[in-house]
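Fold in tokens:
===
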Amino acid sequence: MKFSCYKSDLTEALQFVIRAVAVKPMTPILAGIYLKAEGSMLEIQANNFSTGIITRIPVNTEVSGETVVSGKRFQEFVRNMPDDTITISDEDSANTLAVESGGASVELLTMTASDFPKVKTPETDRSFKIRTTALRDLIRKTVFAVSKDNDRPIFTGCCFEIKGDKISLVATNAHRLALAAEQLNENYPDSDFVVPADTLRGLMLRIDPKDVENYVTINYSTRYLTFTFDNVFVNARLIEGQFPPYDRVIPASSTTNIKVDTAEFKAAVDFVSLMSKETTYNTIKFDFADGGVEISSNSPEIGGAVKNVEAEIDGDELEISFNVDYIVDVLKVIDAKQINIALNDKYSPAAFTEPENENYIYIATPVRT
């Protein structure tokens, strides 16, 4: 096997595929990445049996062939090659792969290609299509809210909920919740399933945010689903269990409603967060009163930080505190110039929404102080 390709193409593909390489492999082959060069295309696979990924990039193939190489080491060396083009070959040895670029070279031991568990297409009985950029946006606005605690697996993924011509993605860790929805081009049977968050994060890496015309096909069953678009194929095992009835935590009304400039609010929160990191519970306080919001945090060992931002306040004045990460995270994905915050009291969940966008809501539980 011998081929050459652009470093940027291979680096991007490996960054995506590496997510399906087993971290603690049962056998060495599962720590590997499968490469198959043929014609003008290189096929790259990784498979840890929970997630399988296939992606393809354009290459100039001199000699067709296939091999398996250590995924982590291969990715590291490719990323650090000095030139824009890379030549990869195993012609000089039956068990090593030579990677060359701009005068730099490395030889990596290979494994037998026939031993690699190729990614297969699972049997599925339902499917739907959605614009790739729409799916990327749904994931971007929700996946950050999943739980990092593997003791409750159902909270470590995003719930896909389809009702007619509408799809919603929901993520929660039981203390916060993000919900984003999108219209589909046609009606589909009602269904719901939970997809691992890491699979979705990886998928975002391969979706071009400017490619607004492309669609991804999602096939699924009770146990598996697949994503197919361009030169990408991903299969994943769904998370078993029943996702909780999330609508119960969304407030039906509010007594205090705030509208604030997103950029100014984010800058103030980022500033005060430097102090909140020094507190026991990573706490930041908001005092909504007198046509503005005072954002503050105090640490007995370090000191205090405060920043004021103008805001439109309709309703009762209110003080409320949050884990600062719960606020910082949502401000990273808000696209609107202003953000709405709906509150009831200092102990009740707050709702963050975008003006004129009924398809997104974020709920955060306050810290009791």
Residues 126-247 form a domain with the DNA Polymerase III; Chain A, domain 2 fold (CATH 3.10.150.10). The longest helix spans residues 262-276. The mean pLDDT is 95. The chain has three domains: 2-115, 126-247, 250-364.
